[in-house]
Amino acid sequence: MDVLPQKALIELVIVLVIALILMGLLMNPKTFMRKKNNGQNEEKRKRTPQISTSVLIYNTIGKIISLIISIVLLVGAVYCTKTTKAVKKVAGNTTTVTTFNLYVMKNDNYTKLSDLKDQFIGFVPSVSTDAYTQASSKLNEALSYKTNNYKHTDDAADALYKSKVEAVFLSDAYGTVMKKRHPTFAKDTKVLWSVTITTSDKLAASDKDITKEPFVLYIAGVDSRHSITETSRADVNMLITVNPKTHQILLTSIPRDSFVPLANTNYQFKDKLTHACLFGTTNSVKTINHLMDLNIDFYARVGFKMVIKLVDAVGGVKIYSDKDFVPWTDHSVHVKKGWQTMNGKTALAFARERKTYEEGDRHRGANQQAVVKALIKKISSSSTYLTKYDEIVDAIAGSFQTNITATQLKSLVKYQLNKSPKWQMMSSVLNGESEKVTGGYMMPNTALYYMILNQSSINENRQYIVDMLANKKITVQKDQTLATAEDTDNSTASSNTSSASSTAASTTTSNSSTSTSNTSTNSSNTTVNNQTTRRTYTNTNRTSNYRKTTRYNSSRYRRAYR
């Protein structure tokens, strides 16, 4: 019962004590009845034992109360056991499962591993991780072969297509990356042999008392096909800063295509932020720490399937959409303009949508924040927690991982249920501009769209977090490019306060002058007289200041992020 609210425990104890007293009275009514004609009546009772109707009624009622108490205790024990198991399953769980495949061309005549004896196999040692090292050792034990090493995954794939090697050894998680270089990679190749390696992220959780001290939680939203432990890209990269003293929560989204130095390369090479998670969640945390000069306290991996389950478990969430559209990820869903109650399937499609919006990935981040806000609002309601308790636990278990300890997680749940604080939720999305460049770490020879983040935006968003960690109450500068009707419709928004805000709000009081100057700098790049502008590129190639990176602006295209 260590996760139940204190008030509920006290009330439960009082009810049980009263019930036990009543049960005692009813089960032994003769103790409280007058005894008349003790001698004579006692003699009669000894000769002919009789049970009066009133005694039978009292005993029956007492047994019913006893049964009710037993059921209450049994249900309580079941709930506590289930909660404890769920908390243990998600808290402190940093297990990662990675599958490595040996790919050969489908038209080749290889049918079993031994067919590759003494043949050349392509490896990419530069992407080495603990799992990769273990998997390579397993292959060494199973086969004798020759090695060709490559710097990048697309180099290894090219070698396979050009028959410079007979096979390549790559993580199954790189499948989506391969499609960019070779769109028919899955059809052209087959897996001859595979091995699955289980490892654990080595990032220790902070020892903060999260009911008293502000903290930063990194959320990695992963589209794992099988299990939350499966290695995959992080399509959602969000920092949640919580201050239990000021009762403020700040959601900071970093676009998945942000071109950032990766921790696993010792920050020497850049790639999309989403690819950092292919080398472990810890790698994503370190990459973001370096990018924003922070020290993230905790992380959590959230499977997209959990969003569907959790939203449905709480009976849907009320969210505002500034557009009417059919999501490109799920054509069976229709998102209407305005306030609406979304089920899990609709909420997930809404959170993944980017093609509908001019702001693309940034607006997707704002949609994701809207879903998170709505869920926090709904779940933090004690009535929802108590009535939907079983469904919430089932939704979270198996689709959520975090390095927060079980003790910390339990204390946070108790804090919310005991104190029921009214949280002020704010949000912000880092901005930048989209450019098509080559030189990305995973696929250096392929020109891809990356978001080049504005340093002023990084600085501004970092300052918000730093101020919150210093126990300062902040406001966040409103982002006009992400503003929706809910910002001006106070009467409607009040019915679902902050649950679906997809915009940022206010500037830090301690750093207002700096934030203002940064904001004006950003605005000059993105707006003219409050009208959105786009950068237009022509057919030019130029070398950038990024390490070994060339920007290819082939064929005119117009695309911008702010």
Most strands sheet: 6 strands, mixed
| Alpha carbon gap, first and last residue | 48 Å
Principal-axis shape: globular
> Got a strand count?
23
Give the oligomeric state of the chains in this entry, treating copies of one chain as homo and distinct chains as hetero: single chain
Within the largest sheet, what's the order of strands? Answer: 14-11-6-7-8-15
Number of helices: 18
Poorly predicted sequence stretches spanning 5 or more consecutive residues: 485-562
Approximate helicity band:
25-40%
- Supply the helix-strand structural class: alpha+beta
Rounded Rg: 30 Å
What do the pLDDT scores average to? 77
β content, as a range? 15-25%
What is this structure, in a nutshell?
The chain is of the alpha+beta class. Helices cover 39% and strands 21% of the residues. The protein has a six-stranded mixed β-sheet, with helices on both faces.
How would you describe what is shown here?
By secondary structure, this protein is of the alpha+beta class. Strand 18 (527-528) and strand 19 form a beta hairpin.
Q: Could you outline the blueprint of secondary structure elements for this entry?
A:
Elements: H1 6-27, H2 38-47, H3 53-90, E1 95-105, E2 120-123, H4 130-142, E3 146-149, H5 153-161, E4 167-171, H6 175-181, H7 185-188, E5 189-200, E6 215-222, E7 234-243, E8 248-253, E9 259-261, E10 270-272, H8 273-276, H9 281-292, E11 298-303, H10 304-313, E12 317-321, E13 338-342, H11 344-352, H12 361-379, H13 382-387, H14 389-396, E14 400-402, H15 406-419, E15 424-429, E16 432-437, E17 448-453, H16 455-469, H17 490-493, H18 512-526, E18 527-528, E19 531-532, E20 536-537, E21 541-543, E22 550-552, E23 557-558
Parallel strand pairs: 2-3, 2-4, 6-11, 8-15
Antiparallel strand pairs: 1-4, 1-5, 6-7, 7-8, 9-10, 11-14, 12-13, 16-17, 18-19, 20-23, 21-22
Helix pairs in contact: 1-3, 3-14, 10-11, 10-14, 11-12, 16-18
